[in-house]
Write a structure and sequence with these properties.
Helix content: 10-25%
Strand content: 35-45%
Radius of gyration: 20 Å
Distance between the termini: 73 Å
Length: 145
């Protein structure tokens, strides 16, 4: 028979386990924010014929508070989620992440680091890094004769 903790860990995703580990080593401060850097809770990376796509959940963060760089084959997303100041309130429960965050993604050598586009919409940051022309699929015309 599996104990309760074992069952919870068995049902958890890898991201759940990593988030719990991060909270254990980087607990919230008295005012509810996390000490130090944190990582966006959701991240997806995939590719199609033309681009590498990266999506990160950045709810509550403004585009001007996000900085994206590509250096030595690493895409770095940095930013800050600013805390809303509320006067004369008593919190009953508070666990939200504020402060600076960073997320890095190793890019394959097939991309062109000069061809990057980013868009933040509805709390989701979408980054497309275009592949180099020589690695994109190319249709070859077959000639008669």
């Amino acid at each position: 028979m599996m104990n309760t903790l074992g069952r919870r860990l068995a049902d958890a995703t890898l991201m759940d386990v990593l988030d719990r580990f991060n909270r254990e080593i980087n607990p919230p401060t008295q005012n509810g924010d996390s000490a130090g850097l944190w990582h966006p809770s959701g991240l997806e990376v995939w590719e199609d014929e033309h681009n590498i796509h990266v999506e990160a959940e950045l709810a509550g963060i403004k585009p001007e508070d996000v900085d994206i760089t590509v250096e030595n084959g690493v895409l770095t997303i940095r930013g800050e989620k600013k805390q809303v100041q509320r006067d004369k309130v008593q919190y009953h429960y508070r666990y939200r992440r504020y402060g600076q965050f960073v997320q890095q993604v190793q890019l394959p050598s097939t991309v062109d680091p000069a061809r990057v586009e980013a868009n933040l919409r509805d709390g989701v940051l979408s980054v497309q890094v275009e592949k180099r022309p020589e690695v994109k699929p190319r249709r070859i015309e077959v000639k008669a004769g």
